[in-house]
Design goal:
Shape: elongated
Distance between the termini: 48 Å
Strand order of the largest sheet: 2-1-3
Helix content: 55-70%
Largest sheet: 3 strands, parallel
Order of helices and strands: EHEHEHHHHHHHHHHHH
Radius of gyration: 24 Å
Structural class: mainly alpha
């Protein structure tokens, strides 16, 4: 199929071609022309116009063209629906609906500024949306930076407690415990935060934190998130598609030893023992 839209793309006119090529028609041809020529050129080449007024594939209400493609082709991939909100926010200047929308807009605007050739821009944009899809599919719980408190703990650990290579001093028990506390802080403080949730729910974060355990199995927010991650790890083990190292990464643990410790704490077995037990059945 041939698809046509107006030139100088930024958000929808890059995101939609990516969606078409990755989920609808991998051999699709995308055509960019001046706005005034979209409909006449569409007739000439028997192409489907999109993201222009008065055509089927366009904005409707507060939804953008990307949203319409999802609805039209009944794409149910949860990662794509996560991306849809980000694209909608970036394309309609509603950066409040997704934290990533402003970043997507900034990258897209800069990319368009640096590339005058629309097809070269599309090629590079495809890479950006491939990366965004991988994040939405596998890495939403990953967090690159920590809070100031976590950074302080890390600085203390690295400056005073971490053993030097070749050193003979034995790490005291309290230092090992501190390392685990730091690791727990890093691994449980995900991109999903009580502050963000409380804003969406219009509930004060301190109240939400205090009341959370009453309705979530007597677990704190961090404990509950950790439990869900272990449950996800169990699903991935059963799928037998990934190594234990990959599962640790996909479920947000920064190292496999910590993953093993938390997994055993939650299930009573190490991930390896759990995996071997599945194979026996």
């Amino acid at each position: 199929m041939k698809w046509i839209t107006r030139e100088h793309p930024k958000i929808d006119r890059i995101a939609c071609p990516w969606l078409i090529k990755r989920f609808i028609d991998k051999d699709a041809e995308i055509i960019y022309v001046p706005f005034s020529e979209v409909k006449t050129t569409a007739k000439k080449f028997k192409a489907i116009p999109f993201d222009v007024p008065d055509v089927e594939f366009s904005h409707y209400g507060d939804h953008c063209t990307f949203d319409y493609f999802l609805e039209k082709y009944k794409i149910n991939d949860s990662a794509i629906h996560t991306i849809a909100v980000i694209v909608r926010g970036a394309d309609t200047d509603r950066h409040d609906i997704a934290n990533q929308s402003s970043g997507l807009w900034a990258i897209s605007a800069g990319l368009a500024y640096n590339n005058a050739d629309d097809y070269e821009l599309l090629e590079k944009g495809m890479m950006i949306y491939d990366a965004l899809y991988s994040w939405a599919k596998y890495l939403q719980q990953e967090k690159h930076t920590q809070s100031q408190f976590e950074n302080l703990l890390l600085n203390v650990f690295n400056k005073f407690l971490k053993e030097k290579k070749g050193g003979k001093k034995k790490t005291p028990a309290w230092a090992k415990e501190l390392k685990e506390i730091i690791q727990d802080q890093i691994d449980t403080n995900l991109s999903l935060s009580l502050k963000e949730i409380s804003k969406n729910l219009e509930v004060h974060p301190s109240y939400l934190s205090r009341e959370f355990s009453k309705y979530f199995e007597d677990l704190s927010f961090g404990e509950y998130i950790r439990k869900l991650r272990i449950e996800k790890a169990i699903q991935l083990i059963h799928s037998q598609k990934y190594s234990l190292t990959e599962i640790a990464y996909l479920t947000g643990f920064s190292d496999q030893s910590h993953f093993t410790r938390i997994f055993k704490k939650e299930t009573g077995k190490s991930p390896l023992a759990y995996k071997k037990n599945i194979r026996k059945k």
